[in-house]
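re: that chain from earlier
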Amino acid sequence: MRLVTKMSLVAVAVITLAACQKEAAQQPAVLDTDEAKQSYSLGVSVGRYLDSTLDEYSKMGLSLDSALILRGVQDAIADKTALNEEEVQTMMTALEEQFREKQAAIAEAEAAQAIAAGKTYLEENAKKEGVTVTESGLQYEVLQAADGAKPAATDTVKVHYTGTLTDGTKFDSSLDRGEPAQFPLNRVIPGWTEGVQLMNVGSKFKFTIPSELAYGERDMGVIKPNSVLVFEVELLDIVKAETAEK
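^ sequence. v structure.
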């Protein structure tokens, strides 16, 4: 999210100039040349951007008057603004601060909610038969046992896996890509580094990973801050160092 920049204000000016031509606006757009179509497309693009920007402010509880926004642009072009430059800068700074404060408050509330939901999920999952909880808080369940070797943190492993959120939303899967993943075990999230070392080659585990052993407060797109993650992992092989480097 971002505030209206100088470039976007210039874009708004394009809309304003078009809006001020009331008689022309009442007539269907004549799009008989590439230049005309480009001009119209620019206006459509800018209009959508302005609408989405105002929507972002609205979600933050900041109600802005679109008519006054356009009027401000029009007055600026005519060099007859009702506020002087210092007042304009003061108001824009205040608006930006309000926006950021609202953002921070919402992020804090969402973080608290995610932490509480994750804690509840972990507590309930830990009660399930077959689930083991390690000292770090990592939870795992053996889905398929095997007698193969176990990797060390410094090993490179080859695995198939599927990762989901606690609501079942899938965010990644080597199975869907049709190719196993291969990586050094000490270069992934802590929950993976710890958990896969518990596995024998050929086994399949289900890991429920607390957020602090996953991505913590980082926003990873589908994976929101403080998310508990669930992985089903099959350890296919431990790759020798010389093989992994090729």
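Strands lie at 131-133, 139-144, 156-165, 170-173, 181-184, 204-209, 229-239.
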